[in-house]
Design a protein that fits this description.
With 417 residues, the protein is of the alpha+beta class. It contains 12 helices and 10 strands. The strands form 3 sheets. The protein has a 4-stranded mixed β-sheet with strand order 1-4-5-8. It has a 4-stranded antiparallel β-sheet with strand order 2-3-7-6, covered by helices on one side. The structure holds flavin-adenine dinucleotide (FAD). Flavin-adenine dinucleotide binds next to strand 1, strand 3 and helix 12.
Length: 417
């Protein structure tokens, strides 16, 4: 980006988009108390779908042709930032259902698959999720052991995935398995398929109002029409989904920090110790300043990453209109696509790495500002602290993102993982 472009950098939104964000804000307010209750009782918040469905958030970035609102990725990021203020738990539902659930279909599914799944998902009739991680293949999904083979007119999947967000309530998941030739392919699996089983993962440290599942494929039958994208290209599909996942986590992390700041400002302006308000103490102000720096720096990284992801999206959508076998063109190393993809990948990784580290630090500081009043899960800052532990691990653990960021700059031959 040149300096001339930078000086015109603008992330202004239209009145229509503002109206949408106000509705998202309304839905967040409507579920706030219930979300706290569900979190404390460790049960799935069953108001998310009806309340956010009413305002279209369940299909915010999905094309109008497939039942979504058709908003751009930046508007979706603004909405996730707002949702993040209610906590990573609530935001994780949207990451799983929309970012890595539906957006991967929007990018890679054929028209028939999109018609079959997206309108249902965007309206909340069907919940979606993303099943990549296995007990022995986390940061290195290429070492997965879930297998598929073609039997008659179907694929048969065998293996196990875990930590699948929304896995206990999903109607369909995208998943990834190795074929007899060792190449990984992507599939859409209906959860009522023969041989599919999902079991809730218990005793989590945080993210208590959404559920994660261990998912087993026991000779699970998947019809051939549910192959997602080109055979053997599953890992690049998964990695492209993770760009959207990381962006969603980073956007939500900005919201988490904003709520930590608001809570800390409110509390420090009413709590007195040693004869004056906490807000008058320089060491407390240092915590607040650090939160503000975290918010401001992360927010711009998220907006830049969203803009880069939008350019990638626009390029591919344009190609889809013009080139019938567009996936084959991308597989033949389309240079423009590669350059846009790498940029979106790098900026999403930078935003996720920075914003999640900042959010974890921010939540820790917020609990410190509250002292013992921030130590019970009834306090918002306590929940932010517990939930922010997960965000530095999932959607690419932060160590692995550092390696990715460096190797994208150095070139593939320096890949350290
Ligand atoms: C709450 C939660 C929700 C999740 N939701 C989903 C979901 O919806 N779908 C899904 O598929 N998965 C999901 N995951 C899984 C998540 O993506 C993985 O946990 C993550 O990719 C890390 O894998 P791992 O846990 O196996 O850790 P490992 O890969 O075993 O890593 C352990 C540690 O080693 C570090 N490490 C690994 N490789 C290297 C290296 N080369 N150099 C330096 N350090 C390294 C990691 O950074 C980490 O700190 C979720 C996880 C959690 C905790």
């Amino acid at each position: 980006m040149s300096y001339a472009n930078l000086s015109r950098m603008s992330f202004e939104i239209s009145d229509e988009q503002k109206g949408f964000l106000e509705k998202v804000d309304g839905a967040c307010r409507a579920i706030r108390e219930y979300e706290t209750q569900c979190y404390l009782e460790e049960r799935q918040n069953d108001l998310i779908v009806p309340e956010f469905g009413k305002v279209g958030m369940l299909g915010c970035p999905i094309s109008k042709a497939y039942g979504g609102l058709g908003y751009d990725i930046l508007t979706y990021a603004f909405a996730l930032e707002r949702i993040g203020r209610e906590g990573n738990s609530l935001r994780t539902f949207f990451s799983a259902h929309v970012s890595i659930g539906q957006m991967v279909l929007q990018s890679w599914a054929d028209d028939e698959q999109k018609r079959r799944y997206l309108p249902q998902a965007a309206s909340g009739k069907m919940i979606m999720g993303f099943a990549l991680t296995e007990p022995d293949a986390g940061s290195d999904p290429g070492s997965m052991t879930t297998k598929f083979e073609e039997v008659g007119g179907n694929f048969v999947l065998r293996g196990k995935k875990h930590w699948v967000g929304n896995g206990t309530m999903a109607g369909a998941l995208t998943t990834y398995a190795k074929g007899p030739d060792g190449r990984i392919s992507a599939f859409i699996v209906d959860t009522d398929s023969k041989g599919f089983r999902a079991r809730e993962m218990k005793d989590k440290m945080g993210l208590l109002s959404i559920k994660n599942a261990e998912v087993t494929f026991e000779d699970c039958i998947v019809p051939k029409r549910n192959l997602l994208g080109t055979m053997g290209k599953g890992l690049s599909i998964a990695y492209s989904a993770l760009i959207d996942g990381r962006l969603s986590v980073a956007a939500g992390a900005v919201g988490v920090m904003k709520d930590c700041l608001d809570e800390s400002m409110r509390y420090s302006q009413k709590r007195q110790q040693h004869g004056s308000l906490l807000a008058k103490k320089q060491l407390i102000q240092e915590h607040l300043a650090s939160m503000i720096v975290g918010i401001e720096s992360s927010r711009w990284l998220v907006y830049r990453a969203a803009a880069a992801r939008q350019r990638l999206h626009d390029y591919v959508e344009n190609l889809k209109e013009k080139v019938p076998h567009w996936q084959a063109q991308l597989n033949r190393e389309d240079r423009e696509y590669e350059s846009l993809r790498k940029k979106a990948d790098r900026l999403a990784a930078v935003a996720k790495l920075h914003a999640t580290n900042a959010a974890f630090d921010c939540a820790n500081r917020a609990v410190q500002v509250f002292g013992s009043a921030g130590y019970q899960k009834t306090a918002r800052v306590a929940r932010h602290f517990l939930d922010s532990r997960a965000i530095v691990i999932y959607e690419g653990a932060n160590e692995v993102l550092k390696l990715k960021i460096a190797s994208l700059e150095l070139g593939d031959k320096y890949q350290a993982y």
